């Protein structure tokens, strides 16, 4: 069997050129210098990952965790402290993203979903309290004394009904029975043309 050594793909060439320039080398360093530095870096990272993998196997874990790398680098204080700084920075960034998502993204979805409820409450309160529009400047979801309605008042409010197409049904008005109309009309006295003087 012939063993072929895999050609290492030069993945970090541009990054290493910038790193060398930042540390005082010329703007375009020699390709041999960049290739040598990349080989050294890849060897170091590979050895570091293998030693972290060995430590994770001794603790009977199949996956490598960040703590495994911390354990491997515990004797090198500069690299160990740099790991701590990077982890702290990563935590701060993730918390900032989380706050941004909570305030803007997720809360906005909740507000958008509840907009119909707020609009319905506004319509009901303005029509019921002022005959179509609020003129006193109070909020739409407040009662006459300025307090928000309680859950009991919400339970007493009639539930809205919808048709199959999603349109709101108009409330059904009860009509008076004919017998009720006749009874009320017979009880009303009529004038027979005579005067009571």
From TrEMBL:
Bias type Low complexity, positions: 184-197
Record bears the keyword rRNA-binding: no
Highest taxon above the source species: Eukaryota
This protein's name: Transcription initiation factor TFIID subunit 13
Chief localization: nucleus
Positions of transmembrane segments: none
Region annotated Disordered, chain positions: 119-197
Location of the protein in the cell: Nucleus
One GO MF term attached to the UniProt entry: protein heterodimerization activity
InterPro entries per UniProt: Histone-fold, TFIID_TAF13
GO annotation (BP), single: RNA polymerase II preinitiation complex assembly
Keywords assigned: Nucleus, Transcription, Transcription regulation
A Pfam family hit: TFIID-18kDa
Recorded GO CC terms: transcription factor TFIID complex
Biased composition regions of type Basic and acidic residues, renumbered to the chain: 145-157
Similarity annotation: Belongs to the TAF13 family.
């Amino acid at each position: 069997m012939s063993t072929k050594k895999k050609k290492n793909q030069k993945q970090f060439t541009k990054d290493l050129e910038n790193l060398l320039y930042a540390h005082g080398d010329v703007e375009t360093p020699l390709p041999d210098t960049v290739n040598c530095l990349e080989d050294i870096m890849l060897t170091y990272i590979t050895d570091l990952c293998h030693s972290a993998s060995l430590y994770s196997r001794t603790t009977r874990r199949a996956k490598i965790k960040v703590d495994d790398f911390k354990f491997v680098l515990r004797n090198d204080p500069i690299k160990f402290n740099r790991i701590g700084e990077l982890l702290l920075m990563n935590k701060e960034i993730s918390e900032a993203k989380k706050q941004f998502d909570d305030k803007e993204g997720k809360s906005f979805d909740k507000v958008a979903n509840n907009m119909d409820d707020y609009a319905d409450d506004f319509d009901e309160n303005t029509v019921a309290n002022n005959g179509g529009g609020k003129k006193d400047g109070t909020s739409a979801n407040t009662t006459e004394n300025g307090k928000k309605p309680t859950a009991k008042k919400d339970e007493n409010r009639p539930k809205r009904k919808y048709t199959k197409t999603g349109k709101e049904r108009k409330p059904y008005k009860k009509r008076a029975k004919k017998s009720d109309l006749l009874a009320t009309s017979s009880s009303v006295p009529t004038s027979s043309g005579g005067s009571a003087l």
